Amino acid sequence: MATFLNIPNTRMIFCGSIITLILGIIGFAVLISLNFVSTDSSVTSLEFVIAVPRHGARVPIFNFPTNPYQGTQYWPEGRGALTKKGKEQMYQIGQSLRKRYSHLFEEHGYRSEDLMVRSTPRVRTYMSVAVLLAGMFPPEGINVWHPTIAWQPIPIFTDYHLDKTKLVTSIDWCPKFANERIKLGNETMADYFKENRDFFNYVGEHSGIAISTAIDYVTVWDPIITSDIHGFSPPSWTDPIFPEKMNKIASEIYRLSVAGTTIMNKLFSGPLLTDLDGWISRKIAGNVSEKMLIHGAHDVTLTGLLSAVGFKEIPFVQPAATLIIELHTSALHEREVRMLYYNNSDTEEPVSLNMPKCQNPCSVSNFFDIIRLLEIEGEWEDACKM
């Protein structure tokens, strides 16, 4: 039975990137339709898996004057770093992936020819993927190398050409993207702040920061949601507005920052979509041995990919949330794509995402038609020019 991915009482954490441009905020109804699926991932039909996990819980990036949780007594790891809780989350996601996909791998588990693992070039993302792998591939058989250490080394690669998370913070890196985002903010944000002036005045009065832009708001919201994730009670003044009201506003800022327009979505997600297209195409052609690709990433990464397949309003991507793309052969011997989602590390079984433009399962040809609208022909740098 279909339901909505609506998590009004779940505390969620903001991404590790600074949103520096004024963004518009619109309605917040969650439109992702989901169906619960079995842990049986169709052993006989599954050919290839792409997993895109967000990193685990981290230390806050921002701070505000009246924040009660400041300093190393609360955050000894350092600004933006992966925390103990984040490591626990990623290990648990690794175990969930092991449970679902262990049949893809041989008797001894990990083999380099079966798996490609990548990460964006952020310390917390590398660490998150490393812990995920520890949970997914404890050494077995010939991979056991020490009598008491239940761990084995697995390589993690980075391709800097695919990761465009820098667009969230650097307005000069891609002029066309920056121009689109500025126009979007100018067209929507002023009216939104006018309509919600009482709310923003309330947040500003209690936080010590005058809230006049999206980044002002995020500066307050990030440490509140992050502290809450780690078990610290939010300030009492947030009781009337947290989590529902504050999370809704932050979630929309988040989506608009990477996919507020088609051009923005294309420039942000196009390189990764092209890469994933290539992996699926090569697997169908029999040109790759890998059975699984893991791409460690950020909340903005997952939001961009979900926007690319047609979702317009997306709940905030929680720490360790993982987007799954499975390639299957149907009973009619036709290739199809199934998209699944682990909402967080506590999700024992993923839910099946019904893409707005192509119901699950989606034929490979239709899936390609959707994502290729956002793929970039030629060089990304050329597409960024005004």
TrEMBL record:
UniProt protein name: acid phosphatase
InterPro entries linked to this entry: Acid_Pase_AS (IPR033379), His_Pase_clade-2 (IPR000560), His_PPase_superfam (IPR029033), Histidine_acid_phosphatase (IPR050645)
Known EC number: 3.1.3.2
UniProt family annotation: Belongs to the histidine acid phosphatase family.
Bilayer-crossing regions: 12-37
Annotated catalysed reactions: a phosphate monoester + H2O = an alcohol + phosphate
Molecular functions per Gene Ontology: acid phosphatase activity
SUPFAM superfamilies membership: Phosphoglycerate mutase-like (SSF53254)
Organism, as annotated: Laodelphax striatellus
